Amino acid sequence: MSTVSTEVLQPYASALMSLAQSSNLSEKFGEDIRSLLDLLQNSEDLRQFLANPLVKSDAKKTVIKQIAGEEMNPLMYNFLNLLVDKGRILFLEGIGQQYLAKLRELNQTVLGEVTSAVPLSDAQLQSVREKVQAMTSARNVEIETKIDPDLIGGVVIKVGSQVIDASLRGQLRRLGIRLSS
Fold this sequence. Notes:
Layout: H1 3-22, H2 26-42, H3 44-51, H4 57-68, H5 74-85, H6 92-106, E1 109-116, H7 122-136, E2 140-147, E3 154-159, E4 162-167, H8 168-180
Parallel strand pairs: 1-2
Antiparallel strand pairs: 1-3, 3-4
């Protein structure tokens, strides 16, 4: 585990989880974090703005207030302002991911990362969810999807350190290895 992870991400994520649990807001904070991570992943400008040390704290807080809107829990909003005050807002993505990992652990949920060549239908996602659940015997399964046209077809499913490569690219690679030996 990296130094940043142990010294910054873990303590802040743990503090946020403690706050969430003491206020019965674990799931609400999870929703807020997912929304924030979505925003950060879809806006390079926002990521750079928050990470820029030359941008004044007040400007960052103003943007966070606009992002938070009425939907975000006030405690989460205060936590974000604390990150700005402590110069840690640039770690928001990592802290958010750590928090979601803690939330999954709390709910006995596993994360299945599914990469496919094209978007999967609801039925296909449900099928993947059931396979992951059978594989791990977890109570719940959370699916995170990514699109990678290079796979040609099929899917790659990653659960923890386990990888199931059922992609056409993977099959072609395995066939190529067999033919060359």
